[in-house]
Design a protein that fits this description.
Chain lengths: 208, 264
């Protein structure tokens, strides 16, 4: 399933063919365009609508961000038995306006029972809810070596990791004190256990 | 001599310079490049000032200090600025603190007087890029809560509002706004109050009167108290807010990050 959040449709329309040298826009049609529609260009909306994309206009709902609306929509369209296997990859959530970035990170917390990965050219981030012991498999052909773990929502009094160059052992982490940045993955598998929800980040290798 | 209230230091980190970098650099009291930030000034300033000869731009926009662990600055860039008199402060032996932390410590150690509350440090290249770098840079704001450190990008700026004070933020509307936000990074806030925003935080009361007819006429008077003072990740955070006045006031029981967009 491919969903464009509002102006995300402009980005697909303008940039996909530049990146693939493929002038055929018909190959990159989102199933759904969702959001408050204040950024999507009218001709882009018309094009995708004519190609069969469902245009889901949620402009009446100003309470939630476009990403929030998209996640809700995906969740709604996923049968219960498939929810546990579902993973949502998001591009364009990081960088840009800081309040947008914070709101997008908040969506990870609000939908903490879903696997949502925010991606940029440089890195990815995921939430590690405190309710679980996490095993993170590192795809070292594309991920790493730089990584980090952050207690953005609330401090951690006890976090333990394996598989990192500088592992944490029952360590306290808090903004204003110690957080794990510029760490290095030292193994194909990293484990994390904590008493606080943590954000995990790992760098992406430059594949060009 | 006392530093003027408008005096500030500029720190350049290792990311593309924002378009207003030359303007900020011109009026700074001290200019520090953190390691690869020197590459960015070397390459980027001439690009931002295409009408001028490269060497003229480079000698005019010469850092006072290049500081950090020196694993990113290109040897020829380091040599170029060293020949122009830039101090090279190699701290490759210290791997425990980030480059920004080292620069802030350097600026505070070298600023006159014991009162650091007038010190203002503007940082370019701290947001975007690798997320762990961005988090490390935000943590520097928390580690130095008594110093005004502003992280800037092409799109916005952020700084810390420590919980110890009520903050009165002056909005320079010609360059800032209208989009803004308040984000409780690191700890939830149980009580935040603001004025000057389109959607202010704080307790508010609404009155509602409804009439119901069953057997007799009944009047119900209801008082709703809505409390939107709590902020946390997983709950409410203030994003896509709008500055409605020239002065925004914020009081909170926890440290908040203030962010405002920059006009193009």
């Amino acid at each position: 399933m491919r969903i464009c959040a509002d102006g995300g449709a402009n980005r697909i329309f303008d940039e996909m063919s530049q990146m693939t040298n493929d002038l055929d826009r018909n190959r990159y049609i989102p199933e759904i365009v969702e959001g408050d529609m204040d950024s999507i260009r009218p001709e882009v909306k018309r094009f995708y609508s004519s190609q069969g994309s469902k245009i889901s206009d949620k402009s009446h709902n100003q309470e939630t961000t476009d990403l929030h609306k998209c996640i809700s929509s995906i969740r709604h369209r996923t049968p219960d038995h498939e929810k546990a296997n579902l993973c949502v990859l998001v591009t364009g959530a990081l960088g840009g306006r800081f309040d947008h970035e914070a709101a997008n990170i908040n969506v990870l917390y609000v939908f903490s029972d879903m696997r949502i990965v925010l991606l940029s050219d440089d890195c990815l981030i995921q939430l590690l809810p405190k309710t679980h012991h996490h095993e993170i498999y590192i795809e070292s052909s594309v991920e790493g070596p730089h990584c980090g773990i952050f207690p953005i929502g609330a401090p951690s009094t006890s976090t333990t990791t394996t598989g990192l160059k500088w592992n944490l052992s029952d360590a306290e982490m808090r903004f204003g004190s110690m957080i794990s940045t510029s760490n290095i993955v030292d193994s194909d598998k990293v484990t994390v256990q904590s008493d606080a929800d943590l954000l995990w980040t790992i760098s992406l290798r430059n594949l060009t | 001599p006392a530093a003027s209230a408008d005096a500030y230091a500029v720190v350049v980190l290792n990311q593309r310079l924002p378009r207003f970098a030359p303007l900020l650099w011109d009026r700074a009291q001290v200019r520090v490049c953190a390691d690869g930030g020197a590459n960015r000034v070397f390459d980027g300033m001439p690009e931002l000032l295409p009408g001028h000869a490269r060497d003229d731009v480079r000698s005019r926009y010469k850092p006072d200090v290049i500081k950090g662990d020196m694993d990113s600055v290109r040897p020829e860039v380091k040599e170029y600025y060293s020949n122009l008199g830039t101090k090279i402060a190699d701290q490759s032996h210290d791997q425990d603190t980030t480059d920004l932390h080292k620069c802030v410590a350097f600026i505070t150690d070298n600023s006159p007087g014991s009162d650091k509350s007038n010190l203002c440090i503007l940082v370019l290249g701290a947001l975007g890029g690798r997320f762990d770098h961005e988090m490390g840079n935000i943590n520097v704001l928390h580690l130095f809560p008594n110093i005004k450190i502003v992280l800037l990008s092409d799109d916005c700026l952020i700084f810390l509002l420590p919980r110890t004070h009520t903050h009165s933020i002056h909005i320079e509307r010609s360059v800032e706004g209208p989009h803004c936000g308040l984000i409780p990074v690191g700890t939830p806030s149980t009580s935040t109050t603001t004025t000057g925003l389109r959607w202010n935080l704080g307790k508010c009361f609404t009155w509602s009167i409804s009439c119901g007819v069953i057997q007799q006429q009944l009047m119900f008077q209801c008082i709703f108290s809505s409390d939107n003072t709590h902020m946390s990740f997983g709950g409410l955070i203030s994003t896509s807010n709008i500055v409605d006045e020239d002065q925004v006031m914020v009081t909170s029981d926890s440290d908040l990050i203030w962010t405002i967009s920059l006009r193009h």
